Amino acid sequence: MSFSAELRREADPIFEAIFEHPFVLGLASGRLEKEQLIHYVKQDYEYLNAFIQIYGIAISKCQNRKDMEMFHEQISFVLDSEVHPHKNLCRAAGVEYETLQGYPLAPSAHHYVRHMLTAAHEGTLGEILAVLLPCPWTYWEIGKKLMKDVQPDPSHPFYDWICFYGNRTDSITTKFCARLDEWAETAGKAEKEKMKELFLQSCQLEYGFWEMAYTVEDWPVEMGAVRR
Question: pTM of the full predicted structure?
């Protein structure tokens, strides 16, 4: 069994919990509140900005152009393509996409971003792959599952979102898994344990991101005028 397959097997309870999360089920049924959709887009926009930064850090640690090209392609994907599912959710919420940019991260999203940035700055290229992989992997599997279970038509409010992730055949997940497996072949025991730890933590934080969006999570103390 490959290293990535071992990681997926160990993370299966988290994947199953994500599939059954009420936000994901809301995407399937087409029933989510406007505030939940808006909160998700606000947070995911900033989260993906961090993803681009981490890709840049990864490029700085690459030793060959093949790896550089892989991460460079993903920067373009986030900038040019991943706006489409966001815009679908914005249409469903009745808001303009451009009005939801530049908001502060909620606690769970902030924790996830810092978790990835720390791994990127301090870790090896293998550790960066491991910390990034759960995001595209879980979305790919969510999309495929929703395509199968829902079989949406264009009248579905989240048709574009589901098709965007569910119809991807050349998934970055496949490329990341292959490169991670290659890296693991020469990695020591300690590094492989670290890669597994980072991967599983990111899986847990993926679940937390859905929960944050569903509950419209915010910081516990509202900041405003000081009361006297």
Answer: 0.94
In this structure, the number of other CB atoms found within 10 A of the CB of residue 29 comes to 13
Catalytic residue annotation: 135, 206
Q: Counting beta carbons within 10 angstroms of the beta carbon of residue 43, is it exposed (0 to 12), middle (13 to 18) or buried (19 or more)?
A: buried
CATH entry, 3-215, from 1.10.357.10, 3.30.1440.10, 3.10.50.40, 1.20.910.10: 1.20.910.10
Q: Which residue shows structure tokens 């815009």?
A: 87
Residues 6+ positions from 188 with CB-CB distance below 8 Å: none
CA–CA distance, 108 with 218 (Å, rounded to integer): 9
Q: Residue 134 in contact with residue 154, Cβ under 8 Å?
A: no
Residues 20 and 188: their CA atoms lie apart, in Å, by 36
- What are the tens digits of pLDDT across the range 203-221? 999 999 999 999 999 999 9
Model confidence at 165: pLDDT above 60: yes
Q: How confident is the model at residue 223 (pLDDT cuts 50, 70, 90)?
A: confident
